[in-house]
Amino acid sequence: MDLDRTNRRKEVLGLMAYTLQDIVRISGVRLETLQEFLQQGLLHGSQKKEDGEELYGEEQLLRLQFILFNLEQDVPMEEMAHHLEEQEKDPIATLVSHKQCFIEKVLRIQTIVDTIDLTTSYLKNGEKLDFERLYIGLSSEDHGEACGDSGAPEEAELSRQGQEDEDPSRWSKEDYLSTQKEADGIYLDLCRAMESGLTPNHPEVQSIIHRHYKWVCNFYTPSQKIYSDLGELYVEQDDFKKLYDVYHPGLAEYLRDAMKIFADKQL
């Protein structure tokens, strides 16, 4: 019964069509911006009204959402078509990836807000302050430095090498696919470590977590607290938990514990 309703809904949605003005109203995107997307071939009309006005179907509304997600992640317009082509091959996996990136950014922004509150309290009340805490959450990327320039004892290989390649705004289609493949390899290796009975503090597991830390650094440079809190988020946030459960029912907790150990010892 539910399947029948879903199929009927798809049939109805497939018949729905929208004008550019409809899309402006639905999405909040300016008409001039939509026209630019059309000129660049990123959006396409699906049919025409009797008066010749272009109409756009549901798939174009979804494509517009992907365009906006990519713009939020600083994908250059000249590379947008390539990204969309690859992302639409597996839209659900793409959405999961987008969600993970945005949640990690939210966590970093919240940390910056906490730093602002800390600094405000110091200035208003004159409380004693460890001045290194003035910079918690402020990525070294903001100062043109490479990921890993945090003084962690085993992170020298992260400093300055491939700085431009690590900037997501400059990624090519191949870079994007590579980072997704890298994450998948990390999670699969952790699953094998779990099944082998290795504890989160085992050197082999910590080596895998080192790779995970470097992967996170593709997006921003986490402090000790942010990286540890990110592990907690993987367990507490349902969508993350479901994502890792696909690999292994206990992966989220295993990853969290290993990340905390890495953060305490290496960051």
UniProtKB/TrEMBL annotation:
An annotated GO BP: regulation of DNA-templated transcription
Region called Disordered, residue ranges: 144-174
Gene3D superfamilies associated with the record: 1.10.1660.10, Antibiotic binding domain of TipA-like multidrug resistance regulators (1.10.490.50)
GO molecular function term, any single one: DNA binding
InterPro entries for the chain: DNA-bd_dom_put_sf, MerR-type_HTH_dom, TipA-like_antibiotic-bd, TipAS_dom
Domain of life: Bacteria
Membrane-spanning intervals of the chain: none
SUPFAM superfamilies cross-referenced by the UniProt entry: Antibiotic binding domain of TipA-like multidrug resistance regulators (SSF89082), Putative DNA-binding domain (SSF46955)
Identification of the protein by name: MerR family transcriptional regulator
A matching Pfam family: TipAS
Domain annotation HTH merR-type: ranges: 17-86
Organism, scientific name: Paenibacillus lemnae
